[in-house]
Amino acid sequence: MPRSILILIITIFTSVAFAQENAPNGGTLRGEVFDTTAEPNPIEGVTVNIVGIDKKVVTVKTDAKGQYKCDNLPAGRYLINMSKKGYNDRVGRAVTIVDGGDHFVQIRMHKRDNAVPVIDRPLGYIIGSIGERYKLEESSMGALYQSLLEVLTRLEPGNLEAKLQENNLMGAMALLSHPDSKAAFAKHLTETQLHDYIEFIENRQQRAWQTVAHFLTAFLDQTLSLNSKQREDVLKLLLDTIAHSPKLDLDSMFRGPNLQREAVDLLPDDLKISLQTILTPTQVKIWHGLIKLINPKRDLVDESELSEMIDALLTAHTEQQLGTLSERENQRLRVAIKGVIQQAIETQKPDIEEKINYIDASFTLLAGLIRQDVPREQAAEQLELLKKKFTDEMVMSKRWRGPELPDLTSHPLYQQTIKEVLSEEAYRQYTERQTERQVFQTQASQAMLVTSLDAALLLKETHRKQLETTTAQLTLLALSAEGLHMMTTEMVITMNPEILRLLRLYND
User: Which residues pair with 58 in a beta bridge?
Assistant: First the structure.
């Protein structure tokens, strides 16, 4: 599909592979490449480089129908880079491969005018943002563009140009921090304007990292059943850490079909964060278990290990969300937890294909909206049907589906026992805490959508506020890949037509 906001979101998508003895080894990556004409034509002979986190590259080419396919890719994160003579390169499209998965990525490539450099689009967005902010004339904007282009042509490949290709927000930061480009800016902006724009971009980046910190805190809250003090401590730790991690790239986050794998990759590996001093022993057990379980090289999870993880998940929720309980109350909850474990084990079923179908359906609907193949009203109707099906499945299916850890705290047996053991007042307080947690997770997800689009388009403040108003009305069915993809589609359906037009231009 065309590059869309989904590329920039979301992103934190992880994988817990509950495979059986004959589990598939690796996944399939396939897709199509079209040009950007009114009636898109397939492009034959495009070189598709699939780059793993170990820097190993698998290369395939598109056929006469513009289609490509690569089987048996080991589970893990990959970047897709595409190139063909006469077309602008497409670089940095991310995908997370899961065992047994069939992943589809559709890309559109611009035919290159020899007079127009590959870097035209991201640089053009940055120049457009500056020109609109300071009411520059077209001639001044053109001269600034040429000055910065001269800077880029003197740089080594993969330096500033690579930053510009990654993300408009990161590209603007890279341009502003480079000595040669600062001199180019100084020719066309007053000193006051230049300082103002630097502050504008730095504030944008700071707001983006704050959003990332809130989103990660919401994910950890859902996974570990954080109490209010832990939530405050985790958020502070993340804000402090991200503020000192300028190399982090928003464009690489929150993209794939599994939320937990990306979070586990990001927190201990990229941010070097340890939660040991904040979490209880039970929560630490869950976190370490999650890190161990999502290892893409892992083929099998035995029943005893699965039982221990479910036990820890429900025990942590009991300890942090229910307050002090009597021995009798604890015992009744232990019996309920054993019942939930038994039901989850009996119905254990890795259901990767079912999961991917929801994500593919959201991608297809979103692509149709952006290409204007599907009217808004029709898209809204299709999305409602998709959301209903997903909601019904969440209600009816209380099994450990894989490849993500489920929120078994909502299991009817466990929830009914909580209602029975707590006093009326204690249960009221408990439900208020759960509502508060749900609101926190929803608001964090809404803010993530706005920030991701803002990072791509460098929205005017009025547009950003309009988008914030739109997303504030969105619902989060689940803090999962499926839930976030459907929320994104709903945002595009309901967004301001002017912002949608910018998004379409960005994806052409």
Answer: 50
Q: Cα–Cα distances in Å, from 94 out to 36, 216, 351, 388?
A: 21, 19, 23, 29
pLDDT of residue 251: 53
Asked if residues 6 and 255 have their Cβ atoms less than 8 Å apart, the reply is yes
3-class secondary structure, 326:
coil
- pLDDT, tens digit, 9 for 90 and up, residues 67-124: 999 998 988 888 888 888 878 777 657 788 888 888 888 888 877 654 344 456 678 7
Asked if residues 489 and 365 have their Cβ atoms less than 8 Å apart, the reply is: yes
The residue type found at 64 is A
Torsion sign over Cα 480, 486, 490, 493: positive
Contacts 24+ apart (CB under 8 A), 180-188: 180/151, 180/154, 181/148, 181/151, 184/144, 184/147, 184/148, 184/150, 184/151, 185/144, 185/148, 187/143, 187/144, 187/147, 188/136, 188/140, 188/143, 188/144, 188/147
Token pair of 398, please?
Answer: 């209380």
Dihedral over Cα of 86, 87, 91, 95: its sign: negative
> Among positive and negative, which fits the CA dihedral 461, 465, 470, 472?
positive
Q: For position 12, what pLDDT does the model report?
A: 27
Does the predicted model carry a pTM greater than 0.90?
Answer: no
Q: What is the DSSP string of 46-64?
A: -EEEEEETT--EEEEE--T
Query: Given this model, what pLDDT does residue 395 score?
Result: 62
Residue 291 neighbours by CB under 8 Å, 6+ apart:
264, 268
Cα separations (Å) of 334 from 41, 96, 161, 183, 399? 61, 37, 58, 67, 19
Q: Tell me, what amino acid is at 129?
A: S
Name the 3-class secondary structure at 492.
helix
User: What confidence tens digit (pLDDT) does each residue in 9-67 have?
Assistant: 333 232 222 233 334 568 899 999 988 776 778 999 999 989 887 778 899 999 999 99
Of 126, 98, 122, 128, the closest CA to residue 110 belongs to: 122
> Percentage of the chain with pLDDT > 90?
32
DSSP state letter for 358? H
- The distance between the two most distant Cα atoms of the chain, rounded to a whole number of Å, is 79
Residues 310-321: what's their mean pLDDT?
A: 94
Which of 85, 145, 150, 156 minimizes the C-alpha distance to 114? 85
103 pairs with which residues across the strands?
A: 29
Spatial distance between the Cα atoms of 309 and 286, rounded to a whole number of angstroms:
6
Residue 15 near residue 403 (C-beta atoms within 8 A) = yes
